[in-house]
């Protein structure tokens, strides 16, 4: 059979790599890698092994997960990249062709794979309870070896997690090391069931609750504080009839309100309180905390879904400005009588892939970093994410912006603390830059307090890395299972 990828947006720099890589001793072309850095910068990339048999496939979201890691030790950087051998990947490898069809549509699959997990494990890599998991929100987590990136298999927390799908954006409580996570469409495709779980710092399930969302939609991320969990229900709708008719699995609905579902931490499903607000689309959570009465939850929101391949439900043309995400703070008064919430803007430029110093997950914080899509007035050549910004969500400190360069893309920034006792935001920002003219990528290690200073180090790769996917830093002690708290090493 002729293997041929379609001629679409994903050619050139973004063409599938389809290659697994081991490269020890990456070249440091500028500066020096800090000697004391011990750990791994894990990034999950989408990379289709076999061309889709579906026309106009949702490429970015429906690609095989490719686990990658920059391992740091003694000032050296080693790189490894391996496909996540999901049940889907293994079945397709055996067949030597794609067997799974449209994004989130089991009715479009080859009959030989009926009932097999459709998960691609292409969103986030989590280390918790001494395990490395590759995650995708429509399927179970996949366990991998944190050092070799070999796939171990599906992981269900010793049978305690029965939801058919687990979020790719769990949160680790920075005080307790507990893992807070959920699944939506947790009782099967296009169901309103949401399952909420917590695991203790050793990875044992200590809480489970189920409830129903007011309507079916994508629930990509959550907000977690010391006392509350907030589930964002925003109308990137998902209906069984659509997938039965082979229409896009998700469509944007301008008519529905937003519902923020608040549960006390470790609360029961029937304790959920819904707070309503105007139509908009949730992107990612930045950070969240509460003071006992008010929940402060920072997120990116756009007027409609960022993804232009999901059409408007009414068939209207997509307004490009409506896809632009902006950082906003949501405030919920848990002692008030109302069922609404207030919002305030956090940053003037559109951006996504926000991250914080993870040691401040669930507690008051101020440091954030994100990719920007546009900086009005700044000259640029190229498109998409070309800047990173650091900002102070408390509004007290200045924000900084770094342009990656003409025809250069930049990936999600990752904060790495300088050492375990480092103050919030004291440390490094790692980000992969794609140099499209050279068809090569670089890993930048920046001073988080001044991203405009010359990089601490520039690590060169002799190949390109596709620009999708989230990243996470895990310290060596975490990787070796010696601690479950997020830290430097
Ligand atoms: C996102 C990414 C996905 C997905 C759903 O918002 C949402 C990002 C790469 O896969 O399936
Ligand atoms: Fe995400």
UniProtKB/TrEMBL annotation:
UniProt enzyme class:
oxidoreductase
Q: Name one GO biological process term.
A: carotene catabolic process
Return the cofactor note field: Binds 1 Fe(2+) ion per subunit.
- Superkingdom of origin organism: Bacteria
Q: Which coenzyme or cofactor does it need?
A: Fe(2+)
Against InterPro entries, the record matches this protein to: Carotenoid_Oase
- Give the coiled coil ranges: none
> Any idea which UniProt keywords this protein has?
Dioxygenase, Iron, Metal-binding, Oxidoreductase
Give its E.C. classification number: 1.13.11.-
Q: Name one GO molecular function term.
A: metal ion binding
Where, in this chain's numbering, is Fe cation bound? 169, 220, 284, 470
Q: Has keyword Metal-binding? A: yes
**Similarity remark:** Belongs to the carotenoid oxygenase family.
Instruction: Spell out the PANTHER family in the cross-references.
Output: BETA-CAROTENE DIOXYGENASE (PTHR10543), CAROTENOID 9,10(9',10')-CLEAVAGE DIOXYGENASE 1 (PTHR10543:SF89)
Annotated protein name in UniProt: Dioxygenase
**Taxonomic lineage per UniProt?**
Bacteria, Pseudomonadati, Pseudomonadota, Alphaproteobacteria, Caulobacterales
């Amino acid at each position: 059979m002729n293997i041929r990828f379609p001629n679409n947006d994903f050619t050139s720099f973004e063409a599938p790599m389809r290659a697994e890589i081991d490269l020890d001793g990456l070249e440091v072309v500028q500066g020096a890698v800090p000697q004391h850095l011990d750990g791994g910068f894990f990034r999950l990339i989408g990379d289709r092994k076999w061309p889709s048999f579906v026309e106009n496939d949702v490429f970015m979201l429906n690609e095989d997960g490719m686990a990658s890691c920059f391992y740091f030790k003694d000032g050296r950087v080693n790189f490894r990249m391996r496909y996540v051998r999901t049940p889907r990947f293994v079945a397709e490898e055996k067949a030597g062709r794609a067997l799974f069809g449209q994004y989130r549509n089991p009715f479009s699959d080859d009959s030989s794979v009926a009932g097999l997990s459709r998960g691609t494990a292409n969103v986030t890599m989590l280390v918790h309870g001494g395990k490395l998991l590759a995650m995708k929100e429509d399927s179970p987590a996949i366990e991998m070896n944190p050092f070799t990136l070999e796939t171990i298999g599906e992981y269900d927390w010793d049978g305690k997690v029965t939801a058919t799908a687990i979020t790719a954006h769990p949160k680790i409580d920075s005080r307790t090391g507990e893992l807070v996570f959920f699944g939506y469409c947790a009782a099967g495709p296009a169901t309103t069931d949401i399952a909420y779980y917590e695991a203790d710092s050793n990875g044992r399930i200590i809480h489970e609750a189920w409830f129903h969302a007011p309507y079916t939609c994508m629930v990509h991320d959550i907000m977690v504080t010391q006392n509350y969990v907030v589930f964002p229900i925003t109308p990137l709708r998902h209906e069984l009839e659509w997938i039965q008719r082979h229409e896009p699995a998700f469509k944007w609905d301008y008519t529905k309100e937003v519902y923020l579902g608040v549960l006390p931490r470790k609360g029961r499903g029937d304790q959920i309180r819904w707070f309503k607000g105007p139509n908009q689309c949730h992107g990612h959570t930045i950070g969240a905390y509460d003071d006992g009465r008010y929940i402060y939850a920072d997120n990116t929101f756009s007027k409609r879904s960022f993804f232009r391949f999901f059409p408007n439900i009414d068939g209207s043309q997509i307004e490009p400005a409506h896809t632009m995400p902006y950082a906003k703070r949501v405030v919920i008064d848990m002692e008030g009588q109302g069922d609404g919430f207030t919002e305030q803007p956090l940053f003037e430029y559109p951006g996504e892939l926000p991250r914080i110093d993870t040691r401040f997950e669930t507690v008051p914080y101020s440091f954030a970093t994100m990719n920007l899509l546009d900086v009005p007035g700044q000259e640029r050549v190229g498109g998409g994410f070309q800047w990173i910004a650091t900002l102070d969500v408390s509004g007290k400190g200045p924000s900084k912006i770094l342009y990656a360069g003409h025809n250069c893309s930049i990936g999600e920034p990752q904060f790495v603390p300088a050492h375990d006792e480092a103050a919030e935001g004291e440390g490094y920002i790692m980000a992969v830059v794609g140099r499209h003219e050279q068809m090569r990528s670089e890993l930048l290690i920046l001073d988080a307090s001044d991203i405009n200073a010359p990089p601490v180090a520039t690590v060169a790769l002799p190949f390109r890395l596709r620009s999708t996917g989230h990243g996470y830093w895990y310290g060596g002690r975490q990787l070796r299972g010696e601690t479950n708290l997020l830290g430097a090493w």
